[in-house]
């Protein structure tokens, strides 16, 4: 029972990747699967970030004691990083032809790409401290808020016609960031 929630979290995090491979193998994406794969990976990175913060705040506000909560949120945070890494890898490979020069040039020209990259750098720092320096991880764990907020702006601005869900995700991260900043300010008083 102790490890069942951890194994379930690992299984749950791998499900979108399994689904993506299944859809790709069955030819669901057609002759031009690159955009769909790129967006699928980016979407799931955002979903895992939002899910991680949602679980944290749900357990905090409901005062639900859950021993495995730090481990599960780390697992989901690492999945958010892996899906974002896949998103960036696919962008470099499919959209820029594997050229790092063209990639960095494009990032410098487009603000939504720059914001997405800044969010990804927050995830890189979180992932490094989560895996290699867990003792110091609590000091850096608040970086998930700007990572999610920057990622949600990237998600919103990256769409030619923003959807209702992209606005919802943006406002959810905005509210979570504001609540975090207000609770930090309240703790200092």
Structure description:
This protein is an all-alpha fold and 189 residues long. 80% of the residues lie in helices and 0% in strands. The chain has 8 helices and no strands. The chain has helices at residues 4-25, 34-61, 69-95, 100-109, 111-131, 137-140, 144-157, 164-188. α1 (4-25) packs parallel to α3, α3 crosses α5 (111-131) and α4 crosses α5 (111-131). The protein is globular and about 50 Å long. It starts with a helix and ends with a helix. The model has no long low-confidence stretch (mean pLDDT 87).
Question: Which characteristics define this entry?
Answer:
189 residues; single chain; mainly alpha; globular; 8 helices
Q: Report low-confidence residues grouped into runs of 5 or more.
A: none
Q: What is the typical, i.e. mean, pLDDT?
A: 87
Q: Indicate the overall shape.
A: globular
Class from helix and strand fractions: mainly alpha
Q: Into which percent range does the helicity of residues fall?
A: over 70%
Largest sheet: none
Structure annotation, total helices? 8
Q: Distance between the terminal alpha carbons, to the nearest Å?
A: 41 Å
Following the backbone from N to C, one meets helices and strands in this order, namely: HHHHHHHH
Number of strand elements = 0
Strand content range: under 5%
> Radius of gyration over alpha carbons?
17 Å
């Amino acid at each position: 029972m102790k490890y069942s929630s951890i194994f379930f979290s690992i299984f749950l995090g791998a499900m979108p990747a399994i689904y993506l491979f299944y859809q790709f193998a069955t030819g669901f994406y057609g002759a031009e699967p690159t955009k769909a794969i790129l967006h699928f990976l980016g979407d799931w990175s955002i979903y895992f970030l939002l899910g991680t913060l949602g679980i944290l705040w749900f357990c905090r506000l409901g005062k639900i004691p859950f021993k495995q909560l730090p481990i599960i949120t780390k697992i989901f945070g690492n999945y958010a990083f892996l899906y974002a890494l896949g998103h960036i890898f696919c962008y470099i490979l499919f959209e820029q032809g594997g050229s790092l020069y063209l990639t960095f040039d494009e990032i410098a020209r487009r603000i939504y790409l720059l914001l997405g990259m800044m969010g990804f750098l927050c995830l890189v720092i979180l992932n490094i401290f989560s895996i290699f320096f867990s003792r110091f991880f609590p000091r850096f764990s608040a970086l998930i808020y700007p990572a999610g907020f920057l990622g949600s702006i990237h998600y919103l601005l990256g769409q030619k016609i923003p959807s209702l869900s992209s606005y919802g995700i943006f406002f959810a991260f905005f509210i979570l960031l504001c609540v975090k900043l207000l609770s930090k300010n309240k703790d200092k008083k």
